[in-house]
Amino acid sequence: MEVKFLNIGFQNMVSLHRVIAIVAPDSAPIKRIISESKKEGRLIDASCGRPTRSVIVMDSGNVVLSTVQPETLAGRLEDKEKVNVQ
User: Fold this and answer.
1) Are 6 and 13 in contact (CB under 8 A)?
2) Residue 51 carries which DSSP code?
3) How many CB atoms lie within 10 A of CB 56?
């Protein structure tokens, strides 16, 4: 299987096939997920000190913070899928 990556900003990438969800960081449950994953050492902060705009949940249990909007990341996912279909 070919490994494909999703650009999450600032030259950071995550494995496309390991992404479970891309969500906004605003709700209390997502803030709780971020807090718990930080305590457990599963948080990866790829925001480079800028405001977090999306939270990426991976199938490994890791949680990745990004400064790219969830809609933008979803669009990048769709673009990758279109390339696969053609």
Assistant:
1) yes
2) P
3) 23
Summarize the confidence of residues 54-77 as an average pLDDT: 97
- Tell how far CA 69 is from the center of its chain: 10
Q: Tokens at residue 27, please?
A: 């709700």
Bridge partner residues of 44 (DSSP): 64
Structure tokens at 4: 């494909």
pTM above 0.70, yes or no: yes
End-to-end CA distance of the chain: 17
**What's the pLDDT tens digit per position in 12-61?**
999 999 999 999 999 999 999 999 999 999 999 999 999 999 999 999 99
Copy the structure tokens of residue 24: 């906004």
